[in-house]
């Protein structure tokens, strides 16, 4: 007998994923993470709760994937534009388009809940913050190899400084994270 047996029932319709993720973002924007329920998402997406739970084992996983779906392209490798500021701008998509603005607002709302929700904290770290931190570290290491940052500085610590500074700007001051800011961060703080 084959190890991979087909399961009874209909085959999974992956075309439903987009509608469910969009419904998740809509409900999240309206009710917030704590107020959001699977029932609300299911009703908005015209899907059953079972359909949602088959795809996403937890509310945290569903929300994180919905936030990731806002990104035009997967993060993938750290872009190499020839400068640290350019690399950071390419990673963060500083175009200021509405989807990015919405994504930042949703992510910032989620960040405030991380200390109270271990499942959400683990999902956000594993799928959003961890990969971005790793990409920023690669960009910092590349800048060190180009001679733009002193080689003996800890690239991991510098990547944390970048993430913390960007997060502070978004959450506390509400100022834009644009190319001008990223250039000042790269030149003034990391290279200084």
Please give a structural write-up:
One of its GO terms (molecular function) is transcription cis-regulatory region binding. It holds the Pfam family TetR_C_11. It is built from nine helices and no strands. With about 190 residues, the protein is mainly alpha-helical. It has two domains: about 15-70, Orthogonal Bundle (Arc Repressor Mutant, subunit A); about 85-190, Tetracycline Repressor, domain 2 (Orthogonal Bundle). Helix 1 (about 15-35) packs antiparallel against helix 2 (about 40-45), helix 5 packs across helix 9 and helix 7 (about 120-145) crosses helix 8.
Kindly list the characteristics that best describe this protein.
DNA-binding; Tetracycline Repressor, domain 2; mainly alpha; 192 residues; disordered N terminus; Arc Repressor Mutant, subunit A; transcription regulation; single chain; 2 domains; 9 helices
What do we call the CATH topology of the largest domain?
Tetracycline Repressor, domain 2
Q: Look at the structure and give the mean pLDDT.
A: 81
The number of distinct structural domains comes to: 2
| Beta-strand content estimate | under 5%
Strand element count: 0
What is the H level of CATH, i.e. the homologous superfamily of the largest domain?
A: Tetracycline Repressor, domain 2
Radius of gyration: 19 Å
The CATH architecture of the largest domain comes to Orthogonal Bundle
Shape: elongated
Helix content: 55-70%
Uncertain segments are 1-6
What is the rounded distance between the termini? 65 Å
Number of helices: 9
- In quaternary terms, these chains amount to single chain
Helix/strand-derived category reads mainly alpha
CATH class of the largest domain: Mainly Alpha
Order of helices and strands: HHHHHHHHH
Characterize the biggest β-sheet: none
GO molecular function: DNA-binding transcription factor activity; transcription cis-regulatory region binding
InterPro entries: DNA-bd_HTH_TetR-type_CS (IPR023772), Homeodomain-like_sf (IPR009057), HTH-type_TetR-like_transc_reg (IPR050109), HTH_TetR (IPR001647), Tet_transcr_reg_TetR-rel_C_sf (IPR036271), TetR_C (IPR011075)
Keywords: DNA-binding, Transcription, Transcription regulation
Protein name: Putative HTH-type transcriptional regulator
